[in-house]
């Protein structure tokens, strides 16, 4: 099956010479959740803006369901819902009218029942007749999400959707994302909350300084780049790592009561079993064992640091 979004050798250079994107290629599969991670200014929003047809690329092209986003703008834009970072709504209009207008703007017939259901899903129904200026920041963010969903898009972009919002909205947001995924909607999100990407995404993309550093299936990325640390508590302190164990690159805690061993996740259990056997042969008595795995945030920071 062909990807629902195909980004092909995409570059964007602004008039002042700033290169926001540098030869980015990316295929987004139907029904997946893709998280794009990167620091401020990495190119995430520029990439989304081009895919959504709001900014033209300097070179390369983007296909949405086989249609070029520049030549077939109306056809491709109708398939896409976008939740931007910034609040861009008429503060004196009501919630219901704002969401309904967005549906009509994308070529869909009026459907009050559907609009009301979206508002209920986002806990906005009780505020449907309120002007936007009367809402809290979190409620305004919900309205942006409702607008993006108003025309039943098959692709949903969430550009930092939970930045600066309360925990309740964040929870509602990810529950909604799961429901949309079950309906076959493809979801692309950018986020600074790496634990959210780790919890909800199927694949992770890392972008920095306009370059797409990698796109990997989440568990494969953790397996390939992640590491584990084995902490071995000792029954009595050691003055240092025994010479017989020096080839294992062990570290000893400051109090001499814990041996630490960092290993690649691909090493498997055989490596650990061999290490424990050698420790036992060295006459060292162990107490508790525990492991800690590298987080997605550790991997992200490492990748960004390497390309700095």
Structure write-up:
By secondary structure, the chain is of the alpha/beta class. The chain has helices at 44-51, 73-77, 95-105, 112-121, 137-149, 167-182, 194-200, 218-225, 268-281, 296-306; strands at 5-13, 19-28, 33-37, 59-64, 67-68, 80-83, 155-159, 186-190, 203-208, 211-217, 227-234, 251-252, 258-264, 286-293. The chain has two domains: 5-222, 3-Layer(aba) Sandwich (Rossmann fold); 226-306, Alpha-Beta Plaits. Strands 6-7-8-3-9-10 form a six-stranded mixed sheet, with helices on both faces. Helix 3 (95-105) packs parallel to helix 5. The chain is elongated.
Q: How do you describe this structure in short?
A:
The protein is of the alpha/beta class and 308 residues long. The chain has helices at 44-51, 73-77, 95-105, 112-121, 137-149, 167-182, 194-200, 218-225, 268-281, 296-306; strands spanning 5-13, 19-28, 33-37, 59-64, 67-68, 80-83, 155-159, 186-190, 203-208, 211-217, 227-234, 251-252, 258-264, 286-293. The radius of gyration is 25 Å and the shape is elongated.
CATH architecture of the largest domain: 3-Layer(aba) Sandwich
| Uncertain stretches | none
Taken as a percent bin, the fraction of beta residues is: 25-35%
CATH topology-level fold name of the largest domain? Rossmann fold
Q: What is the molecular shape?
A: elongated
End-to-end separation in angstroms reads 36 Å
Determine the number of helices (DSSP H or I, runs of at least 4 residues): 10
Helix- and strand-based class?
alpha/beta
Gyration radius, in Å: 25 Å
Largest sheet report: 6 strands, mixed
Pfam families: ABC_tran
Family: Belongs to the ABC transporter superfamily.
GO molecular function: ATP binding
Keywords: ATP-binding, Nucleotide-binding, Transport
């Amino acid at each position: 099956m062909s990807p629902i979004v195909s980004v092909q050798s995409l570059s964007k250079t602004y008039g002042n010479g700033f290169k926001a994107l540098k030869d980015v290629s990316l295929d987004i599969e139907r029904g997946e959740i893709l998280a794009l991670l990167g620091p401020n200014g990495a190119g995430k929003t520029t990439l989304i803006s081009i895919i959504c047809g709001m900014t033209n690329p300097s070179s390369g092209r983007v296909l949405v369901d086989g249609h070029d986003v520049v030549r077939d703008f109306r056809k491709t834009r109708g398939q896409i819902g976008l939740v931007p970072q910034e609040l861009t709504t008429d503060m004196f209009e009501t919630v219901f009218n704002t969401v309904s207008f967005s549906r009509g703007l994308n070529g869909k017939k009026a459907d009050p029942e559907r609009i009301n259901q979206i508002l209920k899903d986002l806990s906005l129904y009780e505020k449907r007749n309120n002007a936007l200026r009367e809402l809290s920041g979190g409620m305004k963010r919900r309205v942006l999400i409702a607008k993006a969903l108003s025309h039943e898009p098959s692709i949903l972009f969430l550009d930092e959707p939970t930045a600066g919002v309360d925990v309740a909205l964040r929870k509602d947001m990810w529950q909604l994302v799961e429901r949309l995924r079950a309906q076959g909607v493809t979801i692309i999100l950018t986020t600074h909350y790496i634990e959210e990407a780790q919890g909800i995404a199927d694949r992770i993309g890392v972008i920095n300084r306009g370059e797409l550093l990698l796109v990997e299936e989440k568990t494969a990325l953790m397996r390939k780049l992640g590491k584990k640390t084995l902490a071995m508590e000792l029954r009595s302190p050691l003055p240092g790592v025994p010479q017989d164990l020096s080839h294992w690159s062990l570290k000893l805690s400051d109090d001499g009561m814990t041996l630490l061993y960092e290993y690649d996740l691909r090493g498997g259990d055989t490596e650990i079993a061999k290490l424990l056997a050698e420790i036992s042969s060295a006459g060292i008595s162990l107490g508790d064992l525990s492991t800690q795995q590298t987080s997605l945030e550790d991997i992200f920071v490492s990748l960004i640091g390497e390309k700095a």
